[in-house]
Amino acid sequence: MKTLRQVQQELGAGQFDFSRHAFRRAVERNISEQEIRDAGANAEVIENYPQDKYSPSGLLLGITRAGRALHFQVSFTESETTRIITIYEPDPNEWIEKPKAEVAMFDCHVCGHNAAKPELVSEVFNLEGRRVLVENIPALVCERCGEVAFSRETTEQVRQLVHGTARPVKTVPMDVFAMA
Fold first, then answer.
1. CA angle 43-88-27, nearest 5°?
2. What is the pLDDT of residues 32-87, one digit of tens each?
3. Which letter does DSSP use for residue 120 in this model?
4. Alpha helix (H) ranges present in 13-140?
5. Strand partners, 83
6. Could you tell me which of 71, 86, 122, 139 has the fewest CB atoms within 10 Å of its CB?
7. How far apart are CA 108 and CA 177, in angstroms?
């Protein structure tokens, strides 16, 4: 199991990747790679989840150079990179500060399998009330359970794409259904 110091070093050095959930949240919430590196290098454990559903994990709090607080849930499983399970900016009204407390290298944080295949996937993001589809995103897909992982470089490219000045390649109508 990784130590907090190992996780801090890996986050600060950019040696991290994202679960599908964290990938979506980083893009939707406009959390940059540099912010993750800054906040991750000084992050502290505020909650431990040693019996977490898929692997031992913890909730970390880190502060960027610009003063933005970020919560990261990360896996403490031994692997080449730190897997970010989710990431968000905590609501200051609800936040209670607590004291410090490549394919062959793939380790699935869901099932523990170590084999994945590269695939191009599509993801839908909710950005300020509108849905945005990004297609052909490079990802690693676990060969056992299908969990998807994204590199930090890919996450940053997608974040810049949807929050930058790029124009969509097409716009399509969408059918909307509601369960009621």
1. 115
2. 999 999 999 999 998 899 888 888 999 999 999 988 999 999 999 999 999 999 99
3. E
4. 20-28, 33-41
5. 17
6. 122
7. 33
What are the sequence ranges of the domains in the chain?
Answer: 4-163
Q: Looking at the domain that runs over 4-163, which CATH code has it been given?
A: 3.10.20.860
- Token pair recorded at residue 63: 């502060």
Alpha-carbon distance 98 to 6, whole Å? 21
Q: Is the CB of residue 80 less than 8 Å from the CB of residue 114? A: no
Q: Output the pTM of the full model.
A: 0.68
DSSP-derived 3-state class of residue 43: coil
- Quick one: DSSP state of residue 104? G
Determine whether 50 is exposed, middle or buried from the number of CB atoms within 10 Å of its CB (0-12, 13-18, 19+).
exposed
Token readout for 114 is 């170590």
| pLDDT tens-digit readout, 100-112 | 333 336 788 888 8
Measured distance CA(50)–CA(83) in Å, rounded: 15
One-letter amino acid for residue 178 of the chain: A
